Each structure stands twice: as C-alpha cells, then as structure tokens.
Amino acid sequence: MGFLKVSSPHAHGPMSTASVMRLVLMATLPGMLALTWFFGFGTIVNVLWASITALAFEALALRWRKRPIGFYLNDYSALVTAFLLGIALPPAAPFWLIMIGTGFAILICKQLYGGMGYNPFNPAMAAYVMLLISFPVEMTTWMAPKGSFAGDLLGPIEALRYCFGFGREAIDAITMATPLDVLKQNNALLVDDLWSQSAQFGQIAGKGWEWANAGFLLGGAYLIYRRIFTWHAPLSMLAALTLMSLFFYDGGSSASGGSPFFHLFSGATMLGAFFIVTDPVTSAVSNRGRLIYGALIGLLIYIIRVWGNYPDAVAFSVLLMNFAAPFIDHFTQPRTYGHNTGAEK
C-alpha cells in the first residue's frame, strides 16, 4: 500500500483561508457599530472605499504578476487589510488618503514581497504609520463623540460628501483631539478634574472609545472561541500593558499616564490585541514565542504612549515587533518530534 507523502501543516476540518478571513471580517462588526454610533458614519465610508480601492490594487498587482485574479481575490485577505486600515483611520478621512493607504498596503507591503504569506510587516499597520508620518494633520482630525459640545454626528450622505471633498472645510467644527492625546498634553489638571471638565471622557476611558474597544474585545473573544487563533499573543499584550500602567500609575496627578482601564479601553488597544497582533504571517509562530511577542508589544505601547511622541502606539509597536518576530522564533522553536532537547546529553 502506498502512503501519501504530505508535508505539514495539516488542516483539520473544512476551515479554509477564505472562511477564516470571513470570520475575521464578521468579528470586526461589533466594534464598527460602536464607532458608528458614537462617531457617525465616517468609519463605514472609510471601510467601503478602502475595500473598493484595496480590491482594485490587488487585482492590478495580480495582473502585473500574471497570477489568477479571481482565485486570489476570493481569499478575502485584501478585504481584511482594507477593513483594518479603514477602522484605524479617522472617520470620513479624505478619499485620496485612503487610496494612498490601501495602495501602499497592497502594492508595497504585500504584493511586492510575493503576496499573502510572504509579507514581513502587517500591511494595514505599515500603511497607517506611513500615512501618520506623511499626513499628520489629516491623520489626527478625529470626529467628536456623540453627546459632546462639538456638534452633530455625520450621517451617511454627509460622510460621503466629506470623504470626497465636498464641504470638507466644515468638518473642523466637529473634530477634536483623542482622549489619549488630551491626557498626554495635560500638565496642569488632576485626572479627575480633567475628566470632569472634558465632554469626551466616559466612565473608564474616552466617550465612545470604551464601547468601541469593548466591541473589538467581544469580536476577538468570538475568534478565540472559534479557534481562529490562540489566546497567547492577545492576552500577553493586554497583561503587559495592564502591568505597566499599574506600576506607573500615580493615582491621577497632572503628570499621570493613565489608569490600566484607560489604557485597555482607549485608542486601538483591543483592535490591536485581537486583529493585528494575531496576524499569523507577521507574528511569532510557537505559543511560547507568541507570549513573548505579545508582551513586548504591550510594553512598547505603554512606553510610546506615555513617554513617546505618539499618543496611540499600537501600529508602531506592532511594526517594531514584526522586525523581531523571526528572532523570537529562532529562540523559541519547539522540540522536534522524536528528539530530545539536548539536556540529557
């Protein structure tokens, strides 16, 4: 009898790349709904336009590379990149900003290295950092949350108009700095006083931000339940961020870096923990490596947020650890089946 000689990895069950990507897209919906409720329809417009441009750039790159376009578009990986980038960008970002971001993510960060599975850096986060460095004004113009004094939320038609440049000058009336930036720039008020004087803070973090992070936490928990990824990287990242904020929290002085709850439910923390850090291509491979990888990202997030120049540091931290992932893999390789570790020699 002849046996098939098939190399690992061996897939169990009907789960395919496309089905995994579809589940990831579905898991982003609770966080997206919270962002829409508190910040208007700008995020949905971002995601829709990013999806169209990402698919177009993916098809163009596949045609240049003489690869089957339909086969690769059906794996939904370009859509996942578009969703993550569109969520991370300020709501109703300029259409050209989104196009530059998706073009950089798909053409430079993904296809230039050979397509999905070969990219050394997370495409969405690499594009986000490129945009933040190149266009800091547009990247820091965030909508004011629902119920604040800055004005009304953008409806679907208004969000489309602002995205494509019609009447965009009026958008300044309904924007403000993010809670992470407000706390970072504060050097005079106690945290409790800052909380009571600003309309953009909620119960434990920024108004709207805490619910958006809760939504991404819910989606991430669902993905862990479906075994799309393991718990090691996201939980170690959140644990490291919690420990750092606990250790350096001074009770709320004017120089405070924020409480653990503030850091966990502000900015892109939960989006990063469950949708960025868990990227199987750019993260560590072994479970022990994922624990180290996630913990170092959490450590970097706190360091950059509190002592660095950028309030939300998820993208920078992830890219720095993308560099280090092969190094971590080298020293955390599991024991080869059938071989001793060497300790008995």
From TrEMBL:
Give the FMN phosphoryl threonine positions (modified residues). Answer: 178
- Compartment annotation: Cell inner membrane
Looking at the UniProt entry, the stretches that span the membrane are 44-62, 69-89, 125-144, 232-249, 261-278, 290-307
Record's keyword annotation contains Transmembrane: yes
Q: Which E.C. number(s) belong to this protein?
A: 7.-.-.-
Q: What is its main location?
A: membrane
Instruction: Give membrane topology per the record.
Output: Multi-pass membrane protein
Q: What are its cofactors? A: FMN
Keywords, alphabetical: Cell inner membrane, Cell membrane, Electron transport, Flavoprotein, FMN, Membrane, Phosphoprotein, Translocase, Transmembrane, Transmembrane helix, Transport
Keyword Cell membrane attached: yes
What is this enzyme's class at the first EC digit?
translocase
What protein family does this chain belong to? Belongs to the NqrB/RnfD family.
State whether it acts alone or in a complex, and with which partners, per the record: The complex is composed of six subunits: RnfA, RnfB, RnfC, RnfD, RnfE and RnfG.
Query: What does it do?
Result: Part of a membrane-bound complex that couples electron transfer with translocation of ions across the membrane.
This chain belongs to the protein called Ion-translocating oxidoreductase complex subunit D
Per the record, the gene is rsxD
